[in-house]
């Protein structure tokens, strides 16, 4: 049976575990190398990408995770997870404590892109492949500034890509795990 991991170092891990479990997926929290090695796909939750990068180093998962992504492991990242799945991060943070790109999707993602005035907001977005709009919750969200030729843009907000897919790696700047809408997790699971 296909087993999906949720990177469980920091962030809204429980919500992703719940979303995947609700879809009937065999789901496991990933904190160690052996757990990473045993999954067929990985969700990287929302949270704080600089903190997650730090913990990936502490738990010696940074390079193993990069290697699995380079090897084609399916992945889904929301918000901080989207940032980490980029090949390049703009405004990555203070040198030495910055968020580091893991690769997975050929894109440049800008952290905290929507700025202070609209620190957090919600909106209904058209989403390629879904019949009804997605109610999207953005919390200090990134946006995508550049995508490579092989990257599909699935949704936009304020003109910027906020949902993208390259092969079996999916990323959203917003948090479907928080709204009870399972359609985006389902898209990911169906691609496994
Ligand atoms: N601003 C956060 C970061 O840089 C992301 C916010 C979120 O995941 N809700 O990682």
TrEMBL record:
Keywords: Glutamine amidotransferase, Hydrolase, Lyase, Pyridoxal phosphate. Pathway: Cofactor biosynthesis; pyridoxal 5'-phosphate biosynthesis. L-glutamine binds at residues 47-49, 111, 139-140. GO terms for cellular component: cytosol; glutaminase complex. GO terms for biological process: L-glutamine catabolic process; pyridoxal phosphate biosynthetic process; pyridoxine metabolic process. It catalyses: aldehydo-D-ribose 5-phosphate + D-glyceraldehyde 3-phosphate + L-glutamine = pyridoxal 5'-phosphate + L-glutamate + phosphate + 3 H2O + H(+); L-glutamine + H2O = L-glutamate + NH4(+). It comes from the Bacteria. The active site is at residues 79, 175, 177. Its EC number is 4.3.3.6, 3.5.1.2. GO terms for molecular function: glutaminase activity; pyridoxal 5'-phosphate synthase (glutamine hydrolysing) activity. Catalyzes the hydrolysis of glutamine to glutamate and ammonia as part of the biosynthesis of pyridoxal 5'-phosphate. The resulting ammonia molecule is channeled to the active site of PdxS. Belongs to the glutaminase PdxT/SNO family. HAMAP family: PdxT (MF_01615). In the presence of PdxS, forms a dodecamer of heterodimers. Only shows activity in the heterodimer. This is Pyridoxal 5'-phosphate synthase subunit PdxT. It comes from Mycolicibacterium brumae.
């Amino acid at each position: 049976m296909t087993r999906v991991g949720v990177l469980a170092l920091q962030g809204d891990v429980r919500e992703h575990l719940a979303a995947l479990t609700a879809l009937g997926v065999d789901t496991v929290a990933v904190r160690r190398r052996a757990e990473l090695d045993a999954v067929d796909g990985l969700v990287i939750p929302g949270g704080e990408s600089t903190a997650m990068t730090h913990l990936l180093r502490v738990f010696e998962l940074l390079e193993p995770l990069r290697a699995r992504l380079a090897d084609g492991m399916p992945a889904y990242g929301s918000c901080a997870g989207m940032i980490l799945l980029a090949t390049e991060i703009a405004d990555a943070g203070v040198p030495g404590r910055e968020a580091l790109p893991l690769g997975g999707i050929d894109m440049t993602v800008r952290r905290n892109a929507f700025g202070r005035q609209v620190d957090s907001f919600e909106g209904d977005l058209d989403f390629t492949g879904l019949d009804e709009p997605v109610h999207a919750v953005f919390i200090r969200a990134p946006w995508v500034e550049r995508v490579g030729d092989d990257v599909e843009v699935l949704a936009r907000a304020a003109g910027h890509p906020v949902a993208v897919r390259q092969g079996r790696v999916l990323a959203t700047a917003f948090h479907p795990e928080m709204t009870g809408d399972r359609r985006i997790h389902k898209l990911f699971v169906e691609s496994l």
